[in-house]
Amino acid sequence: MNIGIIGAGSIGSAIARALARANIRSLLANSRGPDSLAGLVRDIGAPVRAGTREEAASADLVFVAVNWSKLRTALDGLPDWSGRIVVDANNPIEAPLFRPAELHGRVSSEVFAELVPGARVVKAFNHLPPSLVAADPAGAGGRRVLFYAGDDTAAKQQVAALIEQLGFFGLDLGTLAVGGRLLQFPGGPLPAQHLVRLD
Ligand SMILES: NC(=O)c1ccc[n+]([C@@H]2O[C@H](COP(=O)([O-])OP(=O)(O)OC[C@H]3O[C@@H](n4cnc5c(N)ncnc54)[C@H](OP(=O)(O)O)[C@@H]3O)[C@@H](O)[C@H]2O)c1
User: Fold this and answer.
1) Pocket residues: Cβ below 6 A from ligand 1
2) Which listed residue, 55, 123, 141, 159, has the most CB atoms within 10 A of its CB?
3) Ligand 1: nearest atom to the Cα of 92
4) 58-79 pLDDT per residue, tens
5) pLDDT 10s digits, 133-162
6) pLDDT per position as a tens digit, 14-43
């Protein structure tokens, strides 16, 4: 399974670091093109390489970690998602105002899913700060808990397997409508919790 990451900022690069630590290859993309990522990929190391947004989007599993207001542009004009897995690591709030986006009562992942038609969306990697996504999940005396939610059971199983491969303790919260709301930041009760599973 090849992995693409759209968004190479705090969270996108933290995901790339977590994958690299587990020796899993990924392709990282931003809005400014691969050359702008040369220093970052050198710093992360061999398992990650820089590419275009289109290359990242063509992977079997695509993480998206882009500022909420820029998601539409970041995902616009890409080829059909054709059932590929897209991990929504985004939150509907951003600097500098940190004013929650107007979702009209909907779960942010359901709004996000409309931007990637045909994709199997799994919500995950949105509830920890970048430092904890990148850090060794075993560093706190157990396995750091990483929540996920989604409507497609097979897609969730693949994301769960990846979460375990990275060393986290994955916890399935159910559907996007239910689990996505628990995981939502701001508003959900779980993003403020940094939990560790004691094995
Ligand atoms: N930071 C956190 O603590 C945290 C934690 C969990 C989840 N999140 C969520 O993760 C998402 C990203 O946050 P962040 O803190 O990583 O933001 P960030 O550091 O500002 O990085 C945003 C990334 O999105 C890229 N981007 C913007 N427009 C794009 C486009 N049109 N095409 C491709 N890439 C584009 C940027 O590329 P350029 O720089 O080239 O424009 C940049 O690499 C947000 O939805 C945020 O809510 C953040």
Assistant:
1) 6-12, 30-32, 53, 65-68, 70, 73-74, 89-91, 126, 129-130
2) 123
3) 47
4) 999 999 999 999 999 999 999 8
5) 999 999 888 999 999 999 999 999 999 999
6) 999 999 999 999 999 999 999 999 999 999
Q: What is the pLDDT of residue 139?
A: 82
Q: Is 4 exposed, middle or buried (0-12, 13-18, 19+ CB in 10 A)?
A: buried
Count of helix runs (H) and strand runs (E) in the chain? 8, 9
- CA 9, CA 78: separation in Å to the nearest integer? 20
30 three-class SS: coil
**What separation in Å is there between the alpha carbon of 30 and the centre of ligand 1?**
8
Mutate to test the pocket of ligand 1, among 13, 36, 66, 68 (most ligand atoms within 8 A of CB): 66
- At 111, which amino acid appears? V
Distance CA(150)–CA(178), nearest Å, equals 9
Nearest CA to ligand 1 atom 30: 74
CA-to-CA distance for 142 and 127, rounded, in angstroms?
A: 18
